[in-house]
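User: I'm writing a tutorial on reading structure tokens. Could you give me a worked example: one chain, its sequence, then its tokens, then a sentence or two explaining what the tokens reveal?
Assistant: Sure. Here is the example chain.
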Amino acid sequence: MKFRTIYKCSECGYQSVKWMGQCPECSAWNSMQEDVIKEESKTGNKKTVRSFTELSGKVSTLKTANAEKTEKIKTNIEEFDRLLSGGLIAGQITLLAGAPGIGKSTLMMQVAGQISKKDKTLYVSGEESISQISTRAKRLQVDSKNILILPEINLEKVVEQIKNIKPKFVVLDSIQTIYHPEFNSSAGSILQIKESASEIIRLCKSENIILFILGHITKEGALAGPKILEHMVDTVLYFDTEKDSILKVLRAYKNRFGATDEVGLFKMEEKGLESVKDAGLYSLQTSRKKPIVGRAFSLFLEGTRPLVAEVQALVSQTVYPFPKRVVSGLDLNRCQILLASMEKNLGISFADKDVFISIAGGIKSKDTALDLAICASVVSSYREREISHKDIFVAEVGILGQMAGIKMMAERIKEAKRMGFERIFCPGNITSSNISGISVEKLESLYQLSSKIK
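And here are its predicted structure tokens:
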């Protein structure tokens, strides 16, 4: 056996014997990373790859194959079970990624505490000592009697302990710290992550063990390591990268056993992550007791749930050679288009104005239903006219100033009514069957909106 140095693209896996600035396969820049691979001699004995099941390799017809009845294992964490379409199933492999400090280990300790009430649980940590993990468990008030802790980064020892203990639930925190002793590259390299994950996934699949693999993300927000890791697992969950936001949003980007259009909403408290049942209350950051110039409310979607957004705008006389356009929580290009549309259709000019637009509370959204609220808040600030705190604006605004319909309008209207709004401004194509108990102002264009804010 001998080892050979290669360079591998972190984006697509392309291999080269020399370093290159740009990958010839996927055209990514500075993605070639040094790695080490081993080569078996022609006369040497090759290792056999272990099968997932005893029937692996045998051909059978789909008609004669027996489908196993899958029962969901609930974690009793409301938002987590909601995100996973009711809970976990035996043998499910889940990849949980997120920025450092956002709450991955906290969530996994809480999940482990719930599952350990019925099943044996193993928590493998390559980043923390036993005393550190124990301290966190006490802070979270987790019953740790049936949770086994293994502070280890050697994959062979981890696999050996899983075989001996035979747990039903395993947490691997994190995959970037684990190394495979048969490979000389350092922990966290592409080869180590791929081989280590592949080895432990094969074991857990064959034993019907629920496995959670924790992973770090890069500064661009992507999972650190090979992209193939996301294809190897059953479920991929991502925590939003805004770790200082009031709401912690957990999204499912892949789920072989459920839907991916749901999100889990949490808030970080002293005793850990708590499910947010009434997300509308947490998305409002300032008082709604009186009207304010430059503020308009709207509704955006998180998964299938509409949440109230507070859009704020400030239009002021510029003192710079070039007027400033600053946007927070919204798409800058989208806001530039809306400003141009307002200039054209409302006859107002921002040529000598600085424009600042943001969503309160550090919320980020690209939902086009916020367009009308953005326009309303900008016009309000420009004309120094207050917008009623009981009004809410929900519509997409086209480049020509026309209003466009949006999805799930009935649910948004229901949420607006529940949150105490008395009047909603929406597109003119909304049918009366969707409306009950709230005054509706149907708009066809920006000009009609302008007449409401004088």
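What the tokens reveal: The radius of gyration is 27 Å. Confidence is low (pLDDT under 50) at residues 43-55.
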